[in-house]
Design goal:
The chain is mainly alpha-helical. The chain is about 85% helix and about 0% strand. It folds into 2 domains: about 5-195, MFS general substrate transporter like domains (Growth Hormone, Chain: A), CATH 1.20.1250.20; about 205-390, MFS general substrate transporter like domains (Growth Hormone, Chain: A), CATH 1.20.1250.20.
């Protein structure tokens, strides 16, 4: 084991877990992802109020994802030497500023600026989550801590759309973003009270990203991550037209199925933490394998609303464990450069979101929702084969 790896392992071996700090990280993730998802349920009133088309207003979402991708790749390098506690607090402050700016924005450019600030906070905070977790709890409890943190993503998935739709209808879309700023303020307050000081790795550079990517297992791991998230987002982006055109459910049934998916996703996140403490590689393979099979079964099942609801809930359980599993893989495989590897992880996810949605759209136009679900299943099975063939779970030593 090289000196950097020994140092990182020692640094991560904290005797007493800081569970309060872990919860504060979960609140930060919950606030950031809630803010990211809110425009989906508010796009029509936003566009009407600002006097633009819904398509143009939707570019605010694109801006967030694009900036998050760039931030995830650069944050470890640009902020080297900065105390990680201060940096995490700054990202949470950006969440508050973003929501306040969106809430008062009189025009689309200012609204997009607010969403750009969110992209910086989202990309930076998520990139640092795995590396920070290593410094908050003992090594054996990292999977459980990550499952708590990423439960914030699942909770936001359940909460954001119905909250935005209901409050937006009652009090207006600007009130929704003011409340989201309040969530950010709560997260910032808890982080200020619980996060310890954490020095950064001062040697991090852009070259570090390349060095990490060329280590054994890491390149294949990033390919597998991209395929898993591409398959998932291709399916999830077109789940509504699938339920409408294939399953044949109405609005009420659709809402119930999507709620079931969200709750199952939350439970899957917690389940993933316990599974990873027992066998990480098996978990990495089992989740995309299950999702791939479920995608193919859904594509071939036809109109069977009850069966579709059960299968989609099972998909939610399987996907709930995926972010936890791969974040844990990063902490164990690249413990000395977890921030840089975390940046590559978040960049791969953002890229997968774009590819999954775009390719899914082409497939949907050509062969409908069944074609999208079938292709997503095949992509996920391909990811499983890559994991089986070459994604290891032991530390990938730096190349001399």
């Amino acid at each position: 084991m090289n000196e950097d790896l020994r140092g990182a392992t020692a640094m991560s071996a904290r005797e007493t877990p800081a569970w309060g700090a872990v919860v504060s990280m979960m609140l930060g993730v919950f606030g950031l992802v809630t803010a990211e998802f809110l425009p989906a349920s508010l796009l029509t009133p936003i566009a009407r109020d600002l006097g633009v088309s819904e398509g143009l207003a939707g570019q605010a979402v694109t801006a967030t994802a694009g900036v998050a991708l760039v931030t995830s790749l650069l944050v470890a390098t640009v902020t080297r030497g900065v105390d990680r506690r201060r940096l995490l607090l700054a990202f949470s402050a950006l969440l508050i500023a973003s929501n306040l700016l969106v809430a008062i924005a009189p025009s689309l450019p200012l609204l997009v600026l607010g969403r750009v600030l969110l992209g910086v906070g989202l990309g930076g905070f998520w990139t640092m989550s795995a590396a920070t977790t290593m410094r908050l709890v003992p090594a054996a409890q990292v999977p459980r801590a990550l499952s708590i943190i990423f439960s914030g993503v699942s909770a936001a998935t359940i909460f954001a759309a119905p909250f935005g739709s209901y409050v937006g209808d009652v009090a207006g879309w600007r009130a929704v973003f003011l409340m989201a700023a309040g969530l950010g303020a709560l997260a910032l307050a808890v982080q200020f009270a619980t996060l310890p000081s954490m020095a950064s790795h001062r040697h991090t550079s852009l070259r570090t990203l390349v060095d990490v990517l060329t280590r054994p297992h890491i390149g294949l791991g990033m390919i597998a991550i991209t395929l898993v998230f591409t398959g998932h987002f291709a399916l999830f982006t077109y789940i509504r037209p699938f339920l409408e055109t294939v399953a044949g459910v109405g609005v009420g049934g659709m809402s119930a199925i999507l709620l079931g998916f969200g709750v199952a996703n939350f439970l899957g996140t917690l389940l993933g933490g316990f599974m990873l403490e027992r066998d990480m590689r098996l978990t990495l393979m089992a989740m995309p394998l299950a999702m791939g099979v479920l995608g193919l079964v859904l594509a071939g099942l036809g109109s069977a609303p009850l069966a579709d609801a059960i299968l989609i809930a099972l998909w939610g359980v399987a996907f709930g464990a995926v972010p936890v599993a791969w974040s844990t893989w990063i902490t164990r495989t690249v413990p000395d450069e977890a921030e840089s590897a975390g940046g590559l992880f978040v960049a791969a996810i953002q890229f997968a979101i774009a590819i999954g949605a775009a390719a899914g759209g082409l497939l949907f136009d050509a062969s409908g929702a069944r074609g999208v679900f079938g292709a997503a299943g095949v992509v996920l099975l391909a990811a499983t084969l890559i994991i089986l063939a070459g994604v290891g779970s032991r530390p990938a030593a730096a190349v001399a």
